[in-house]
């Protein structure tokens, strides 16, 4: 997720449908899926074809598979039966009992109580809701009925287990969250179980989802800790359009802690895992980090004066911030409790900024400098980076850079080149923290900053990678010679002239035969190319192109952009890749010297990408014909060489084995016959 790159993709056959969410088995690192309700599939990351993965057809329809970190996966069937995955694999066609009597499962969750897994699910039938609590290891099942409420019904559920008690939270259609407490009972006799099936669970009001006349129409609910819940929904206020938003509530003090509008809309689903929210916002998966610590009454009502007190409430990194949220979101010890109060205090806080800059949080300082002169902004930010605690500034570094890039866009004459380069080199930074940074660098043609970003950012979109490649190729060599570019990746192998004897020695060392050399000679390589293998680009441009080769990408997303690369630039880039390929092949270990030099795999991948994108055009270009012919013959020679190596692989392994078993103190003469 941090790199925004897909690592694997699998699909079922046409006509088949995945009928429950895919999960990962934490113990075996395998994926588990169910398609068409009954067909179980299990595969590993390296498996490419899902159709060839392990398959088992079960005897009943599956509702969900739950995977727990320290227990095997549990399979919940639509009839309420539960089996461990291991038990199902031993006998896939075993009979599964039907416990729900025509009830439809609405929600399920799996938890660990000590070393014992507990499965909880809710069902609905004729307007009545039931709760089942199962301990699969003990074959223990308890069924309860939820207290019925005529005016409202449950929309979604979530739960957690504390001290042998299940706390079930229910979001109802009347915009309220109710709490139901269920003790985890020990094994009982059948008679007691029959009585418990009739037991009705009473609920208590936990939270009223309304604030200042606005009501939150919730669609999804998750528990953050014992005092905080997150609700995704649509906030409706009188005389105003309703807006989708993510909210965090303090259940202990009945207050709204923070909220974030989601203008692009959501799917209505919210997930929470390891202090991160996952939700669909528009067409993208959005990940939001949060942190919950001990809540206090002062924090809950927005009266927390001491910003350093450890008694804090929710801290959410919204990533992209509005001006009103900047102060409260990045003052890491103050909750977003009352937005109106925050707005009232903005002016007074800005006035204090000039007098006491050392007492301001990062967010407050940025707001106070919003209209400051350029030199004041840069000076204050440099002082901030020198004095601020690392952890606090790291969380806000994206806003610091955003403040600088916003100033650059408003004032075209302002561009703090050295300051931006210093930030990228010094701090752990990524493209997603400030998407405008590379756009501004492209506009300003700051090649050095683009090189730094390509080498350090793991999540650069393919469109930006292509824009950098096009900018590098289109910039003249004369202009690049006057630019400060890091050439550590190229200085060790470019423009090092080799005489014929040395070239011939290295080629023989890498296994080329006379016939293979004849192949190369037949390609009519120009004389200067044969003598020195000179690089088709200068040092600076080669270093910039190497940064592109190092950037992460997904072929599916990059290929459409590469097709737009002008033909002459595509030929030049392919010439450089061919040059690198030849240089790598001259070495026994196929590794180029230098810092951040491209690897043979990176070179080959980009060559294939470029040929896929421009093959038809290159076949038609006269200047590319000789290049393609040389490349073809060189690759053919390499294939022949490795084919010959494969033939003697067994003999080489036998030699290696004999070398290990030989006694070092014994003198001997051995005759080995290679057939």
Automatic annotation (TrEMBL):
Residues 1-291 form the Nucleolar protein 11 N-terminal domain. It comes from the Eukaryota. One of its GO terms (biological process) is maturation of SSU-rRNA. One of its GO terms (molecular function) is RNA binding. Residues 400-673 form the Nucleolar protein 11 C-terminal domain. It is found in: Nucleus, Nucleolus. Keywords: Activator, Nucleus, rRNA processing, Transcription, Transcription regulation. GO terms for cellular component: nucleolus. This is NOL11 protein.
């Amino acid at each position: 997720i941090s790199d925004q790159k897909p690592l694997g993709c699998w699909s079922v056959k046409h006509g088949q449908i995945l009928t429950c969410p895919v999960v990962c088995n934490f113990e075996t690192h395998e994926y588990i899926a169910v398609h068409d309700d009954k067909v179980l599939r299990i595969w590993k990351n390296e498996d490419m074809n899902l159709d060839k993965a392990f398959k088992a057809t079960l005897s009943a329809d599956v509702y969900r598979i739950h995977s727990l970190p320290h227990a095997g996966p549990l399979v919940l069937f639509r009839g309420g039966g539960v089996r461990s995955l291991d038990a199902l694999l031993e006998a896939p066609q075993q009979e599964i009992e039907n416990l729900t009597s025509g009830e439809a499962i609405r929600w399920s969750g799996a938890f660990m109580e000590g070393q014992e897994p507990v499965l909880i699910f809710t069902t609905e039938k004729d307007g009545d809701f039931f709760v089942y609590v199962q301990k699969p290891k003990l074959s223990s099942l308890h069924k309860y009925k939820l207290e019925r409420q005529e005016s409202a019904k449950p929309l979604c559920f979530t739960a957690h287990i504390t001290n042998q008690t299940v706390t079930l939270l229910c979001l109802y259609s009347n915009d309220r969250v109710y709490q139901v407490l269920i003790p985890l009972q020990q094994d009982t006799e059948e008679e007691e179980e029959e009585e418990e099936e009739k037991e009705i669970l009473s609920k208590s009001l936990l939270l009223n989802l309304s604030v200042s006349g606005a009501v939150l129409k919730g669609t999804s609910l998750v528990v953050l800790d014992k005092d905080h819940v997150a609700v995704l929904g649509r906030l409706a206020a009188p005389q105003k359009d309703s807006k989708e938003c993510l909210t965090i509530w303090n259940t202990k003090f009945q207050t709204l802690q923070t909220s974030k509008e989601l203008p692009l809309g959501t799917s209505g689903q919210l997930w929470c895992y390891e202090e991160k929210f996952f939700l669909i916002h528009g067409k993208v998966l959005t990940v939001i980090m949060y942190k919950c610590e001990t809540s206090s009454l002062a924090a809950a009502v927005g009266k927390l004066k001491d910003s350093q007190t450890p008694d804090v409430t929710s801290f959410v990194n919204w990533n992209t911030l509005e001006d009103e949220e900047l102060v409260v979101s990045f003052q890491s010890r103050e909750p977003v409790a009352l937005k109106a109060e925050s707005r009232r205090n903005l002016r007074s806080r800005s006035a204090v900024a000039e007098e006491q800059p050392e007492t301001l949080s990062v967010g407050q300082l940025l707001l106070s400098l919003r209209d400051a002169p350029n030199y004041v902004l840069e000076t204050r930010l440099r002082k901030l980076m020198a004095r601020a605690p690392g952890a606090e500034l790291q969380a806000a570094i994206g806003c610091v850079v955003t403040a600088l890039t916003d100033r650059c866009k408003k004032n075209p004459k302002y561009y703090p080149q050295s300051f931006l380069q210093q930030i990228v080199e010094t701090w752990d930074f990524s493209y997603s923290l400030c998407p405008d940074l590379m756009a501004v660098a492209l506009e300003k043609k700051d090649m050095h900053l683009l090189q730094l970003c390509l080498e350090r950012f793991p999540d650069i979109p393919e469109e930006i990678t292509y824009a950098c490649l096009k900018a590098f190729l289109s910039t003249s060599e004369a202009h690049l010679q006057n630019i400060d570019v890091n050439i550590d990746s190229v200085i060790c192998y470019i423009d090092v002239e080799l005489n014929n004897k040395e070239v011939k020695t290295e080629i023989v060392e890498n296994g080329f035969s006379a016939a293979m050399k004849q192949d190369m000679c037949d390609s009519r390589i120009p004389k200067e190319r044969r003598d020195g293998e000179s690089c088709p680009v200068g040092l600076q441009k080669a270093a910039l192109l190497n940064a592109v080769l190092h950037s992460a990408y997904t072929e599916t997303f990059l290929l459409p952009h590469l097709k737009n690369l002008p033909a002459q630039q595509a030929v030049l880039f392919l010439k450089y890749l061919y040059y690198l390929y030849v240089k790598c092949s001259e070495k026994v270990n196929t590794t180029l010297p230098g810092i951040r030099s491209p690897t043979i795999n990176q070179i080959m991948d980009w060559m294939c990408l470029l040929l896929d994108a421009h093959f038809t055009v290159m076949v038609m270009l006269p200047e590319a014909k000789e290049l393609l012919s040389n490349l073809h013959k060189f690759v053919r020679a390499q294939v022949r060489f490795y084919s010959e190596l494969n033939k003697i692989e067994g003999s080489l392994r036998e030699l290696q084995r004999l070398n290990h078993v030989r006694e070092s103190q014994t003198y001997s003469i051995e005759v080995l016959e290679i057939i």
